[in-house]
Every structure is written in C-alpha cells, then in structure tokens.
Amino acid sequence: QVQVEESGGGVVQPGGSLELSCAASGIIVSIRLMEWYRQAPGKQRELVSSMTARGTKQYTDSVRGRFTISRDDAANTVYLQMNSLKPEDTAVYYCHAEIVDTLGIVRDTWGQGTQVTVSS
After folding, report:
1. Tens digit of pLDDT for each residue in 83-109?
2. 4 phi and psi angles, rounded to 5 deg
C-alpha cells in the first residue's frame, strides 16, 4: 500500500513564507506526477502546482512567481515553497501523487491535507 503525507502547514502573517512537504511511502517503483491542490472554505478544490517525473512544472496563475514546487526523488518527496503569502492563500493544502507500484499499477494517492492560514 502506498500513501502520501503532508506537513509544514501553519499560521503566517501576510507577506510571510511557509514550505510544505509531501512524503510518499510504501513500495514505490516510481512516481509519475506530484501535485498540490488546495481547498478554501466554501470553494472547490483547485490545482495549485504540479511537477512531472521529467521535471515539468505548472502553476495556477494566482501563485505563479510566489510559489515554487520541487521534488527530491531519492526521498519520494515533493515540496511547495510559498512566499509572499496572501490571506486568499488560506486553505487546506492537499498532496496528490500518481505512484507506480510493483505490479505496474498507477495508484492515485491523496494525503489528508495540511491547513495553511494567512492572517494578521
């Protein structure tokens, strides 16, 4: 069984920074894609950023230039460095990964989420 677990959320003032981490565990052959989503109260879950195994990165317009996604493949971990945080970044942040197991099956894996609150 594979799983991912987020960490690094918290409370920060506007303009501050946080770094989220998402570590995958279990018997993993490879990870095709790692993504960060977020869901604010009363809103739909939205894709914030993604990074493929080849290193292709994407960002939603509202975070481009402020957030940076990176991966440590040796540690099966993806990071989201969030700078210049705004109150509208407040949300639960979820990690999603497409993990290939030993059977060659791609496991669509979600974490439990970590709360990020931007408030003065």
Report:
1. 999 999 999 999 999 999 999 999 999
2. -130, 150
